[in-house]
Design brief:
It is built from 5 helices and 3 strands, in the order αββααβαα. The protein is an alpha+beta fold.
């Protein structure tokens, strides 16, 4: 299977799994906002890791348990919606990258607050007096060119 085909199948499966989760499952353990962040399928398309983000974090463990139990049901729903001979076995995994991104952003924000950094970039000068003004320029045509252009126009359309 080509790399492009694998990427297409992964994208299709990711969107379809997200739709199935969005439409809701009857499992009361699945709570909060569940987002499919990415899907990684094996080369033979037998298995696929579905990376999910769950907000709020306190529902994460219970929701993951519900998703793992509902994986075969979700796979069956996906199979109904896509035109693939084989739909991979779905394995749900918590996507930790969003938590890491949040931690980095929080650390940056705390560092800026500690150093007393301003919200605006100090290198940008907002003084209007230093702004450049550009005046429109008009094209000046030398008289010899304008005379020849007008005489050429007259010769094409002589007045009667």
């Amino acid at each position: 299977m080509s790399h492009d085909r694998k990427l297409q199948v992964e994208s299709l499966l990711q969107r379809t799994v997200a739709q199935v989760l969005q439409r809701g499952l009857a499992d009361p353990r699945i709570k909060g906002l569940v987002s499919v962040t990415r899907l990684e399928a094996s080369v033979d398309l037998k298995t696929a890791n579905v990376f999910v983000s769950i907000i709020p974090e306190e529902h994460e463990a219970l929701t993951m348990h519900g998703l793992k139990d509902a994986a075969r049901f979700i796979q069956a729903k996906v199979k109904q919606k896509v035109a693939l001979r084989v739909v991979p076995h779905l394995r749900f995994v918590v996507d930790e990258s969003i938590k890491k991104q949040e931690a980095v952003l929080l650390a940056i924000q705390e560092g800026m607050e500690r150093t007393g950094a301003r919200e605006q970039d100090p290198t940008v000068d907002t003084d209007s007096s230093s702004a450049l003004s550009v005046e429109p320029t008009s094209k000046s045509v030398p008289e010899s060119e304008s005379d020849s252009a007008s005489s050429a126009a007259e010769s094409e359309h002589p007045e009667t």
